[in-house]
Amino acid sequence: MTRAISLRNVTKMYGRNVRAVDRFTLDISPGEFVVLLGPSGCGKSTVLRMIAGLEDITDGELLLDGEPVDDLAPGERDMAMVFQNFALYPSMTNRDNIGFPLRMENSGDDPRARVEATARMLGIEDILDRYPSQLSGGERQRVAMGRAVSRRPSCFLMDEPLSNLDAKLRNHLRAEIARLTRELGVTTVYVTHDQAEAMSLGDRVAIMRGGVLQQVSTPRDVYAVPENIFVAAFIGTPRINLLEATVHAPLDGRMSIDLRRQRLPLPEPLSPDHQLLRIQQGRRIVVGLRSEAVRIATPAEARPGEVPISGLVEHMEYQGHEALVHFNTGSRPAVVADLEAPRPVAVPRRRRRAPGAGVLSRWLEPAGSRAAGGSASDRVMGPVVAVDEPEPYVWERSGAGGPAAGASDLVVRTSPDVQLQRGAQVPLLVDLAHLYVFDVEGRRICPAPSVVPGLDV
Ligand SMILES: Nc1ncnc2c1ncn2[C@@H]1O[C@H](COP(=O)(O)OP(=O)(O)OP(=O)(O)O)[C@@H](O)[C@H]1O
Predict the structure, then answer these.
(1) Which of 7, 35, 36, 44 to probe ligand 1 with, by most ligand atoms within 8 A of CB?
(2) pLDDT of the residue at 107
(3) Domain identity same for 105 and 240
């Protein structure tokens, strides 16, 4: 048996002040594998624990197979949890650990056959008679999974089950979890802060920030059509390039996006998405370019939709199958608040914010202050953008007419065979079909969202 899980406007308060989860709504279908993804402290585990019945819900509703479960104790929900810290009984053999939930069920059946079948499924038959202390971390986690699997629950709840393991083992067990849950066909809710894990495991990925659900979509869609700048920045390696920009839309000339030192002219006739950018004229926006949206090539090699810029090579990262080239294009990176490890900005000194510094001050406002008293859209989406304000680039002072050294703002993926000298000025082509634009609130405005408020398109 597998089950549907529905959370409707679920809020969790710890005390009066900590809003760990804020109006969280999600419908999970029977047999679906949904990953809750987000940075530390965003409320993922709290959602999981509410589903398990380990935390009370402050407000909203949780339904299992369409029925409210307020009065159902954790043990009555027929769910199995797997945590990151294995939680095995040290005085029991692994066989007894796996069989423990079956004995607790006390169905009268001999658990041995079920334990052996589970162990076969997980490839741990040969360690059943050892104790947990005699196992490696990966083996211990497999036993913990075995214990969860053995009683054939209707749902798995997994809270960072692989985070204590080394990278190689994590990849291996990740594949096993995918296989196992598919084989069993059991609804699975899986918590992680590792986007690669989320993307490889989930039928859908639910991305959270500050207790607020930002987007829930297939792995393909969270990458290709992120609803806001936080999702765009959280998903994908290397991280999407995010650059502060403005729209330049003269009445009698070609529309372009101004990246401080360089411009991206928009191809004419304007696409419907690019036409919509006209209303952003004069406002600050953020341009998002994934590393594959830019290639090293001369203007003469441009294909339709590609526009030339140039960049100064800051450094190269060889990754074996590819290389990442860090360029300085003279633009200013936008920094998204609350990501775990934001890419360092070019010049990381922060200026003190002048009181009432207009749009930028709104971007810089701390997340909490806006969450408490923000607009309705803030509360739905959570405060998303924070744009750092580094010191201006010292392009003019470099003497060569180019940007200052050490200020990379654009990462481009290329073949590992490409040889580039640090400090070389290199021609680049930007594929505007892969251009993202976000507004000051961090919402994606290009490609246009399917519903554009206030516009009849
Ligand atoms: N028992 C508690 N009392 C008060 N605050 C709590 C409690 N448990 C969690 N919180 C807070 O609620 C927020 C969400 O916590 P939660 O554990 O759900 O986050 P998470 O996304 O799972 O983080 P992590 O990845 O670090 O485990 C955090 O700010 C946390 O400090």
Answers:
(1) 44
(2) 65
(3) no
Q: What is the pLDDT of residue 397?
A: 27
d(CA 188, CA 80): 10
Residue 286 in contact with residue 445, Cβ under 8 Å? no
Nearest-angstrom CA–CA distance, 27 and 34: 10
Q: Which of 349, 373, 351, 380 is CA-nearest to residue 442?
A: 380
Q: What is the pTM of this model?
A: 0.82
Record the tokens describing residue 457, joined without a space: 């398109």
Q: Does residue 212 surpass a pLDDT of 70?
A: yes
Does residue 453 fall inside a structural domain?
no
Domain contains 454: no
**Average of pLDDT values for 269-276?**
89
- Alpha-carbon torsion (448, 453, 454, 457), positive or negative: positive
Provide the token pair at 310. Answer: 């140039």
Contact 322, 415 (CB under 8 A): yes
Helical axes 167-184 vs 137-150, angle rounded to 10°? 10
Domain boundary among 227, 259, 285: 227
Indicate the Cα dihedral angle 365, 370, 373, 375, nearest 10°: 110
Please identify, among 212, 227, 242, the residue that sits at the C-terminal boundary of a domain: 227
Residue located nearest, by CA, to atom 1 of ligand 1 = 14
Atom of ligand 1 nearest to the CA of 47: 18
Going by alpha carbons, the residue nearest to atom 14 of ligand 1 is 43
Average pLDDT over residues 47-75: 93
Residue nearest to atom 22 of ligand 1 (CA): 45
Q: What's the pLDDT band for 229 if we cut at 50, 70, 90? A: very high
Name the burial class of residue 438, with classes exposed (0-12), middle (13-18) and buried (19+) by CB atoms within 10 angstroms of its CB.
Answer: buried
Is 442's C-beta closer than 6 angstroms to any atom of ligand 1? Answer: no
Q: 188 vs 455, which has greater pLDDT?
A: 188
Q: Can you say whether residue 41 is alpha, beta or left, with left for phi > 0 and alpha for psi between -120 and 50 degrees?
A: left
ipTM of predicted assembly, 2 dp: 0.97
How many percent of the chain have pLDDT more than 90?
Answer: 54
| Contact 46 CB / ligand 1 (< 6 Å) | yes
Ligand 1 contact, 41 CB (< 6 A)? yes
Give the pLDDT score at 426: 96
Check if 12 has its Cβ closer than 6 Å to any atom of ligand 1.
no
